[in-house]
Amino acid sequence: MKILERDIKNESVSLRSEDLNDLWTLYNIIDKGDIVSARTHRRVVLKEGSKGERKPMNLKLSVESVSFHEFSNRLRIKGTIVEGPEDYVSYGTYHTFNIEPGQKLTIKKEKWLKSELKHLKKSSSFKVDFNMLMVAIETGLATIALITNFSHNRIATIKKNIPGKRYEQSFRNKAYEEFFSEVSKVLKEKIKSIKISIIVICGPGSAKERFVEYIKKNVPIQNLPKIYTIQASSGTESAILETLKSKKLRDLKENVKILLETEKIEEIMQLFATNSDLIAIGFDEISNATDRGAIKELFCADILIRGASKEKKIQIESILNKVENTGGTVHILSSEHPTGQQIIDLGSLVATLRYKI
Fold first, then answer.
1. Numbers of helices and strands, H then E, in the chain
2. Model's pTM, two decimal places?
3. For residue 108, what pLDDT band results from cuts at 50, 70 and 90?
4. Is the dihedral of CA 154, 159, 165, 168 positive or negative?
5. Contact criterion met (CB below 8 Å) for 323 and 314
6. Cα–Cα distance measured from residue 329 to residue 179, given in angstroms and rounded to the nearest whole number
C-alpha cells in the first residue's frame, strides 16, 4: 500500500493499492458512511433514446457497501454520489467503484483510528498469488477444493461406483479410468482459468498415487503445477481440513497466510486440551489479559472489525494497540476460511497467553 497524502484536519487519506493483499486490507477498513473518491467510468446518456457512452470522471461516494472479489482482483465499493461533474451525474444516485491494484483513491472518515492507519502502512509479506488445488480422493469418491489466502471454496464432489475385488480386473480398471477422468476434467478446467501454485492430492490407500499416475499419462496440462501426495483419512472435505495441518506442507508456510493460520489454530486447540489457562476468550477476558501485558498472540475474525459500530471499533482498537505495544502479535483472520470460522465459533476474539493469570 502506498500512502500518497494524509490530511489530518479533514481526516482523509489518499493512497494507491498495489496488490490483492492491499484490496483485502481496504475491504476491512472502509466502512458504511465513509466518503471515497476515485477516478471511474460512468455511462452517460447524452441523447434521449440512445444507449449512452461511458465517460471517465472523478466521483465521490458515500459508501453503502464494500465487497471483495478475489478472483477478478477487484474491490467493489457501492454508494451514492455526493460529488461529481454536474453535467453528467445526479447527486444521490448510485455508482460502484471497481478498485484494482495500482488504482488511486481517497478515503475520508469521521475519525481515522490508529489501528486502521497502522494496517494501511503495514506492508504484507504474504504471497498474493497463492492458489492451491486440493483433491481428497479414495476409491470412488473425490472432493476438490480451491484454497487461497483469502478463501476456501469446495469446487466439486465426484462419486463413482468402483466394482469390488471379486469382479474382473478389467471392469475395475475401466471404472477407475472413468472416475479419474471426471476428476481430472475439473482440475484441468480450474488450471485453465486460474494460476495454480501447487496441487495437493490426499487420501487413504493407493488411490492418490494411481490418480497422479493417471494425470501424468493421460491429461495434457501445460505447465502442470508441482503435485504433492499426502496420506489422509478419506476422500471428503474433512480430509482436506486434516491435510492443511500436515507437516508435509510445513515448507510452504513461511509466506502463505492460510497455512500459517491453520498451524496457529491447531496450536490453540492443543492448548485447550492441555493447558486451557493459557487461553483467553472474549472482550472481558482479553481486556484483562491485555492490561497485564500477558497476551502472546491475539486472533481476531475480520467480521468483528468490518462493519462494527464506532464504539466497538474504539474498544477493539484499544486492545489491538495494547497487545502490539506489549510485544504481542495480532492476526486478522478471514471469515471465508475454516480458520476464521473456528475463531468466530469461539466468539471472534481469542488470545494465547504468556503466563497464567
1. 10, 16
2. 0.75
3. very high
4. negative
5. no
6. 46
Retrieve residue 296's grid coordinates.
Answer: 502472546
Residue 65 and residue 33 in contact, taking contact as beta carbons nearer than 8 Å:
no
- Mind listing the domains of the chain with CATH numbers? 2-121 (2.30.30.870), 131-252 (3.30.420.60), 257-353 (3.30.1330.30)
Inform me whether the pLDDT recorded for 139 exceeds 70.
yes
At position 12, the amino acid (one-letter code) is: S
SS3 203: strand
User: Residue 144: what residue type?
Assistant: I
Q: Return the pLDDT at 254.
A: 61
Query: What gap in Å lies between CA 115 and CA 222, rounded to an integer?
Result: 44
Nearest 5°: the CA angle 70, 75, 79 is: 145
**Residue that the C-alpha cell 495500482 belongs to:** 102
In terms of Cα–Cα distance, which of 123, 130, 101, 122 is closest to 255? 130
Three-state secondary-structure class, residue 195: coil
Query: Sign of the CA dihedral 241, 242, 247, 248?
Result: negative
